[in-house]
Amino acid sequence: MSEFEEKSAARLRIEGRVQGVGFRYFVYKNARRNGLCGWVKNRKDGSVEAHFEGDRDAIHRIIELCKKGPAGSNVKDLQLNWSEPEGTWKDFDFKYS
To answer: Which one from 33, 42, 74, 81 is the annotated catalytic residue?
Structure first.
């Protein structure tokens, strides 16, 4: 990331048919491909939650990908909250509750 890229953070909660269809791996693979840090996890309520930090344009790209999801998924709702990056994560990984 160059010094001119705008760093940001976003938390997503994705609802629908998003567990048991490879959604977390889809998010993981695409977040790493876009150079983002953070995590993705399944929630007990059947949704998937993800936290992204990095270049704002890259976060916008991953949000658009999450709206569609992988084959077999069916995204019904996506909740988005922007925030300031915490700088806690050095990579993107899976998080377990």
So the answer is: 42
Q: Is 17 tagged catalytic?
A: no
Task: Say which of 11, 13, 17, 24 is annotated catalytic.
Answer: 24
Q: Which of 96, 9, 18 is nearest to 58 (CA)?
A: 9
* Domains assigned to the chain: 7-94 (3.30.70.100)
**Span 4-14, pLDDT tens digits:** 568 999 999 99
Q: Which residue has the tokens 């909740």?
A: 79
Q: What is the model's pLDDT at position 94?
A: 97
Q: Note the pLDDT of residue 3.
A: 52
CA distance 3 to 20: 39
**32 annotated active-site:** no
